[in-house]
Each structure stands twice: as C-alpha cells, then as structure tokens.
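How a chain folds remains the central question behind the approach discussed here. No coordinates are needed to read the tokens, only the vocabulary itself. For completeness, the protein is quoted in full, as a sequence line and a line of structure tokens:
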Amino acid sequence: MPVGTVVIVVAGGTGRRMGAVVPKQFLSVGGRSLLDRTLSSVSAASRVDAIVLALPADSAPEAGEAYRVFPKMIAVVKGGAERHDSVRNALAAVPKEATIILVHDAVRPFATPGLFDRCAEQALLHGAAVPVIPVRDTVKTWDKEAGTLATRDRSEFLRAQTPQGFRAGILREAYALAARDGRGGTDDASLVEAAGHAVVPLPGEEANLKITLAEDLRMAAGLLSGDPDFRVGLGGDAHRLVPERELWLGGVRVDHPMGLLGHSDGDVLLHAVADAIYGAMGDRDIGFHFPPGREETLGISSRSILAHARGRMASGGFGLLGLDAVVVCETPRIAPLADALRSSIAGILSVPEECVSVKGKTTEGMGFEGRGEGISAWAVALLRGARPENGGGAAG
C-alpha cells in the first residue's frame, strides 16, 4: 500500500515536570492513557496513511507489541534523551517514499482527526505548516535592567501546537543540518525555520491541550463529558502441571518443580486476564486470536498474548478501570508472589498497580487443583469506553 502521509507520534519522554511515577503519556484520563487517546485520533484521520511511534528507550518489549495493534501503525522505535532525538530515531523508520511527515506530541490527546488532515493538506501546499491559536491574555516581558514589567502587543504572538506538518524532504534536511550543527529545538518547526524554510500557520484547536502539569490533567478530565460505556468481562483458564517445564504465572517465572503444560508457556493467570479483556469487548477469546497448534505460536510468551489484548482494547477505544484475578492451587503459595504478579500485569497493561488485584485460593485438597495436578485462574475486567456514537466501540 502506498505511503503518502506518515505521522510520527513522540512518546519517548519521561515527563519529569508532571511529577508522576510513570511518564505522563501513560497517565490515565477517563479510563484511557493519554497516548491511547492520541493514537486513536491519529488513526482516524483520513489523510494519514501510516504511524511511527517513539516510546521511552526503557519500555518493555511487550509495549511495542501492544501498540502495533493500532490501525496504520508501521513501526515502534526507541525514543532518545531529548525530544529531537526521539523524532530523529522515528524519521529513520519512515518509508523513503513518504511525501508528508507530521510530528505530534503524545500528550496532546484531544487533537481531532480533522486537524491532522488539514495540517497534511497545508504542508503539501506550502512545504511546512503549524497549527496556532491566538494569545488572548495580555502579554508582558520582564525588563531586568529597569526592574519592571513591560506590556507587549499580543497580536504579535501565537501559540504553536502539534501536529506540525512538513514535506518529507524539508524535515529530513532540517534534522540533518541540526545534527551537523549540534542544535536542538523546542519544536520541529524551529529546526525547519533555522534551515531557511518558510512555515505557514493554520488554525489550531483550543481543546488541543498539551498535558504537562498535574493541573493540565485535571482540565483534560473536564473535557471528557461523553456518556461512558462500561463493560465487564470474565476470563478463566486451567492447565496441567508437568515436570521439566518452567512455571510462569502473571508473566513472572516462579521457582517450582513443575510447570504448566500448554502450546504457549502455559501462563493460566495471563490467559484468564486476556480472556476477560477480550470478553468485555465482545472480541472472541484467546483461541480465536491465537489458535492452538500453529507452529509460529509454539512456546509464545503469554506476556505477548496479554499485550495483544491490551492493544485491541486500546485501539477499540476502551480503557481498563479495574481487574480482579484469582489463582487456584495448593502450591506454590500465591500470597508471597501477589505483589510481583500484580506489578507484572499492571506493567503489561500500562495501568496503575492499584487498578489490579491478584490473590490466591486453595481448594482444601478437592479437585485437580487440590491434588496438585494443575492450576486454574479466573479474572474479571471492568472496561470503560465512549458510546459508539461518540467514537467508541470494540476493536474489529
């Protein structure tokens, strides 16, 4: 398929100014991460043919797998130390035949698909285009020598947003010159301007907030006034314990004399969680997405299976509000492992640990679990999405 317009989504930063435990692009607003919301909007733009995503360099491998489920995603690359380093890494993954490249900050989740389309059109016409909005407040500068504020003509100032669009050759040239001169920039247009190219404005969107500080996140939550669509899913699985197999539970290797038999690594806990998520969306089950007996999935890590479910959830417009899981077995004891299992699952799903609960139960010697023949697991997932008329719905 021809690739005309590519959007680079920059999500490689650490978000230090937000002061959160996780990078700000992964923070949740209305049950979905900022990055998920951004990717949904980019995917819906009619003039966008492909997406290249730059994630933090220390992201788990499963993160890339989850985001590849989004429509139009062609590459997930590692971000760099600074924003321009992340864009440079992403540029290397943009197909050579691309004619227009848009660059968008992952923490601007409310840019509409129409803004991406208009930016691409203006970039094609003029070479470089940036959405801007007027400054409505009185603008002042600080005169250090006089020790006073000075009022400036606010009509001279515009607030730049992303996406910023460029003919591909112009952006590549600007980044090559910046690398040669050892320069960075606060946005991509500044590098293009420094390379001698004109940049034209187009009307931006007032709701296209950049989430930088904690108060920005509260403002973002206020913009989400749509009617929520709550979904509940139930998942369960059981596998036989056999010798000479590693035991994996919740994506964690557990020290145990036996492991779970299965076409994959047999992780019953992650299978139950994945099926709960699939079920909440009405998106079939693991057997449908990963049919047993296929050579290419033999021994597959169940972390990849859950990452796929997470990607389907995100691309379908859903966010995980809560997950409750139980592992049923006599041994190993789950209580000492619960925190590690909880942390592992939350990491794969890119949700706060407080959204995940993992506990263990025994059957007091009854059934196959009680006899030590196998382990079972059950999970319930609560998802939230927008009503179909507001842009939500299950992944197709």
In short: The first helix runs from residue 34 to 44. The chain has twelve helices and 19 strands.
